Every structure is written in structure tokens, then in C-alpha cells.
Give the backbone structure.
Amino acid sequence: MLRIGTVVVHPTHGKGVLREIKEMAILGETTKYYVFHFTNNDLDSVMIPVGKLGEVGVREPVERETLDEALDYLSSNLTDVPDPRSNFHRIHKEYMERIARGDILEVAKVYKALCHKGDSRELGLKDKLLFEKTEQLLVGEIEATCKLSPERSKEILLSHVNVH
């Protein structure tokens, strides 16, 4: 059972804080819900049944070692860029699936691939949105793991990006 104030990471909403634990009766069945506030979410709050956290992918922020591995990947000469002749929709779907897994290294790989693509030409709307989402997820993870401000977390992220 999480406590109020616990910082978590959601695969699509990013960094969040547990604000409340609420019991609600729906169709005659009482269920406990965690009520989270996610920093980069337009919704005021997100309610998740207590027993469904694992299924949804909510987890604690990664350890510093795991975060460093993702940042090292961004600094490296490695890039997981698909063949430019590949089907855009298939690539986009693959990127979305990789992000939804909640693995910070996969998010870093998608972010770097989009950085690389944006370095050679302007990103289309779907790619721009995905780029912004992966950047928000990475900044939130840095913020949560290192307990830094969003601004400082973004500086750290950008200082590690190597697209050449």
C-alpha cells in the first residue's frame, strides 16, 4: 500500500504524486483507489484501483544506476533508427508500444531516434508529439530519481543528447 506523497512513474503520464486514497462504491462494489496528480497531464487527477497498479504499469522511479544507463545511451554513438524507407505507421506504432512498456531505456531509445530524425529534417506532427512525450517522460524520471527541478532535469537530459 502506497502512502500519500509517494512519487511514482506511469508509462504514459510520467511522474506523479499520490494525493489521496479514496473508497468508492461502483455498482454496489466498494473499491479503493489511488488518486494521483501527474505533472504533465491535463487532467486534474487520475484514479487507479489499488489492486491494478502493476497492470497499469505504475512503478517507483528508477534507481540512479538505471537512469545513468539511459543517459549514457543518449550520450553514446549508438542510435536505434529504423530504415527511413520503413512504413511510418508501423514505426510509430512500434514506438508507442516501446514507450507503453514503461522501460526508461526504451523511452531513451525512441527519444534519441526522434532527435536523430529531427536533426536531418523537420518532424511531422505525430513525431513532434511523440518527441515531446518522450522528453517529458525522461525529464520526469530524472526529476523523480534525482529529486531535481523540472528545469534542471531538462538541462541534464539535453546535455546528454548526442545525435551525430
User: Anything to note?
Assistant: The first strand starts at residue 7 and ends at 10. The CA atoms of residues 85 and 94 lie 15 Å apart. The chain has a mean pLDDT of 91. Residues 7-56 form a domain with the Thrombin, subunit H fold (CATH 2.40.10.170).
